């Protein structure tokens, strides 16, 4: 049950599934052993909380609220009321053995067992009749075993006198000697045990009603929060479905757009490739003609004399420049014909 081996409770759902017995620790799932009360009013065994404190603060394993711890133990104070309830429950559940004859008594047989407050030992009915009827036990206080826990704190430990008063100032019970030893102004704050008991019961009833109202409000808040969580989950699921649907539609549209663009690019590529191939075929068919003309020109230049060349130059310029311009302009996509003519004119003799 060392505190280091336990991890905080994950969620309220785990708490609902767990055994929520009021006298059972939520960490070790065993009856409380020295229950400690945190600032958030959650209780845990001292051994379950040992080693969890850091820098004088201890975080609640259930809600995470920090609690200030003082002293060298590193533990919050013991819940005396819860310890009393645990002890009372244990006294009623454990088997009791007679101190004289070793006879065991179960919970169903408590009415047949007795307890000697003087000896501090349980007794069965036969032993009470046989042993504690003697004169030497005449002054022993014998009560029913079921009333032992109720009668065990009736006497003042200082004066061994029964309690008869209660101090509202010091919040403690008083015997007759304690009352006599008090100062006069402090006696004004003392009431009898029965009155204190009735007032305590009234305050306890009021506290119980307040706790019940708080419990009802808490349950209503839990139901409301669960409904809100479910609504948020449904809304998130709907949003997720809508986003997935939108994304799917966008993917389909993008895919169709991609196909359309790729088809258009492919069509343009095929058209341009076809046009370039046609131009390339025309230019390739023009090369032999150009080579023939170049050979003819070279042969003419090498064989003609000055008079023949001068007489034929005007005829060459008028026939070949226009022919070259007409053939090259649609193939090379040259715009004005006069630029070609001008360029070709620069070739002739100056």
From TrEMBL:
It comes from the Eukaryota. SMART domains: RING. GO terms for molecular function: Hsp70 protein binding; transmembrane transporter binding; zinc ion binding. This is RING finger protein 207. Residues 25-63 form the RING-type domain. One of its GO terms (biological process) is positive regulation of membrane repolarization during ventricular cardiac muscle cell action potential. Coiled coil: none annotated. It comes from Leiothrix lutea. One of its GO terms (cellular component) is perinuclear region of cytoplasm. Keywords: Cytoplasm, Metal-binding, Zinc, Zinc-finger. The gene is Rnf207b. Residues 93-145 form the B box-type domain. The lineage of its organism: Eukaryota, Metazoa, Chordata, Craniata, Vertebrata. It is found in: Cytoplasm.
């Amino acid at each position: 049950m060392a505190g280091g081996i336990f991890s905080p409770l994950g969620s309220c759902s785990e708490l609902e599934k767990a055994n929520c017995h009021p006298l059972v620790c939520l960490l070790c799932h065993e009856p409380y052993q020295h229950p400690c009360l945190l600032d958030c009013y959650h209780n845990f065994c001292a051994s379950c909380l040992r080693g969890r404190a850091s820098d004088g603060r201890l975080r609640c394993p259930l809600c995470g609220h920090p609690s200030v711890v003082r002293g060298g133990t590193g533990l919050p104070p013991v819940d005396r009321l819860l310890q009393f309830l645990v002890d009372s429950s244990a006294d009623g559940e454990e088997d009791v053995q007679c101190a004289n004859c070793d006879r065991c008594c179960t919970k169903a047989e408590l009415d047949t067992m007795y307890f000697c407050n003087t000896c501090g030992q349980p007794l069965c009915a036969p032993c009470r009749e046989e042993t504690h009827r003697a004169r030497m036990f005449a002054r022993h206080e014998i009560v029913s075993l079921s009333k032992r826990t109720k009668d065990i704190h009736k006497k003042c430990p200082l004066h061994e006198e029964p309690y008869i008063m209660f101090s509202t100032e010091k919040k403690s019970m008083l015997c007759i000697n304690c009352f006599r030893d008090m100062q006069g102004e402090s006696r004004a704050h003392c009431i009898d045990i029965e009155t204190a008991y009735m007032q305590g019961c009234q305050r306890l009833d009021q506290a119980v009603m307040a706790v019940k109202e708080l419990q009802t409000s808490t349950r209503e808040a839990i139901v409301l929060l669960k409904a809100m969580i479910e609504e948020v989950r449904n809304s998130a699921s709907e949003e997720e479905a809508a986003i997935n649907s939108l994304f799917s539609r966008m993917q389909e549209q993008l895919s169709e757009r991609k196909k359309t663009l790729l088809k258009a690019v492919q069509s343009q590529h095929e058209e341009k490739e076809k046009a370039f191939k046609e131009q390339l075929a025309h230019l390739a068919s023009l090369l032999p003609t150009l080579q023939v003309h170049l050979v003819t020109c070279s042969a003419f230049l090498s064989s003609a004399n000055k008079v023949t060349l001068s007489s034929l130059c005007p005829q060459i310029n008028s026939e070949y420049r226009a022919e070259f311009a007409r053939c090259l302009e649609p193939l090379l996509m040259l715009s004005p014909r006069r630029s070609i003519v001008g360029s070709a004119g620069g070739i002739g003799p100056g």
